[in-house]
TrEMBL record:
Keywords: Oxidoreductase
All residue ranges annotated as the Enoyl reductase (ER) domain in the record: 32-349
InterPro entries tied to this protein: ADH-like_C, ADH_N_2, ER, GroES-like_sf, MDR_fam, NAD(P)-bd_dom_sf
Organism: Novosphingobium capsulatum
Protein name according to UniProt: NADPH-dependent curcumin reductase CurA
Oxidoreductase keyword on record: yes
């Protein structure tokens, strides 16, 4: 008869002697390269009262990290040279000196690219994660986690999308974009996606978009394709990229339209030379709202968002799109691929 005994909860005795970190060796110029990062080891820390030790299980690879690698102010401080890279991850408490956070608790938190890290309950973004049976843990770092919440906040809370609206999404084959396409479709919107290349555009169409446009074509062809895909104009633009696409879209917004500005990845690799948007007068002409947002500013709406994501996932109307790398040391390579525009869906590292 097979052994039915549950595996013993990990204890400090089972911990490795050292912690591995991915540190920033030098600041990237343009797209990051492998020599910007290094793998270093430090002794396993000893916990103080009130602290927990978390073992990273799923590392999140995000474009926002590119901004933290530059030495300029943002909504988080820059990563110091030779310090571990800042990043979100999903992990498991493997040692604890806090009664409310026992060993075995699964958490999502903004930490560092370290295979183990020490946190306290006030750690930025700390949340408990309770996976549903049969759903892989990594989904809670993607479409059923921060990615899905970002898509929902931008589309519903900021973009105020309604059934019948025409919703345009940039980087539509990416993590956030692919989730927005599926959410908007489920809400009864007409969905148009912008993606780089014919293969990504075909993928966006398979996700349920009514139209998908390759944005890496000549400007005239792109404008013609957008006019054909949204002949009545655009009610909601979920913008992940900024740059020249924003200029292209502004005159094509409908009166009273909403632009949910999620990110500006078009300028992350070259933040010293941002694209100068020339069409802002359209905000007046069309009485548009352009609003930037950070997902976790909308904490009061996240339970509602999570319920909708879980519900749609349960009905098969939200299928997480992911590209999954394996092993802690693959974090820099996964990040470089993301910043080169090579990826589709959420970029994750399973450890
Ligand atoms: N506000 C928030 O709280 C929040 C939270 C999470 C993410 N974000 C932002 O959301 C955006 C998407 O993040 P993600 O994690 O979902 O990444 P992602 O879409 O999975 O990956 C990035 C994609 O951006 C596209 N891209 C890169 N450079 C571009 C350019 N110059 N012009 C047009 N498209 C370009 C590429 O797709 P193509 O090949 O299709 O061009 C690339 O694959 C980022 O700007 C990120 O900072 C914001």
């Amino acid at each position: 008869m097979p052994d039915q005994t549950p595996p013993a909860a990990p204890t400090a005795a089972a911990l490795p002697a050292t912690v591995r970190h991915i540190v920033l060796r030098r600041r990237p110029v343009g797209v990051p390269t492998p020599d910007c990062f290094a793998l270093v080891e430090t002794p396993m820390p000893v916990l103080d009262d009130g602290q927990m030790l978390v073992r990273m299980r799923v590392g999140s690879v995000d474009p926002a990290i590119r901004g933290f690698l530059d030495d300029r102010p943002s909504y988080l401080p820059p990563v110091a040279i030779d310090a571990p890279v800042t990043g979100m991850s999903l992990g498991e408490v493997v040692a604890s000196r806090h009664a409310d956070w026992p060993v075995g608790t699964l958490v999502r938190v903004l930490g560092t690219w370290s295979d183990h890290y020490v946190i306290t309950p006030d750690a930025l973004g700390l949340e408990r994660v309770t996976p549903q049976p049969g759903v892989p843990l990594r989904a809670y770092m993607g479409a059923l986690g921060p990615v899905g919440l970002t898509a929902w906040v931008g589309l519903v809370a900021v973009g105020q999308a309604r059934p019948g609206d025409t919703v345009l999404v940039s980087a539509a084959a990416g993590a956030t974009g692919s989730t927005v396409v599926q959410l908007a479709r489920a809400m009864g919107c007409r969905v148009v996606g912008l993606a780089g290349g014919a293969d990504k555009a075909a993928l966006v169409q398979r996700l349920g978009a009514d139209a998908a446009i390759d944005h890496r074509v000549a400007p005239d062809a792109l404008a013609t394709a957008l006019d054909a895909a949204a002949p009545q104009g655009i009610d909601v633009y979920f913008d992940n990229v900024g740059g020249p696409l924003l200029d292209l879209v502004l005159p094509r917004m409908r009166e009273g339209g909403r632009i949910a500005l999620c990110g500006m990845i078009a300028q992350y690799n070259d933040a010293d030379h941002p694209h100068g948007v020339t069409q802002l007068w359209q905000l007046v002409v069309k009485r548009l709202t352009l609003r930037g947002f950070l997902t976790y500013d909308h904490a009061d709406r996240l339970a509602e968002a999570q319920a909708m994501l879980d519900d749609l996932h349960g009905r098969g109307q939200l299928v997480p799109l992911e590209n999954v790398h394996r092993g802690f040391e693959s974090l820099p390579g996964a990040f470089i691929a993301l910043m080169q525009g090579q990826t589709t869906g959420k970029t994750l590292v399973e450890i």
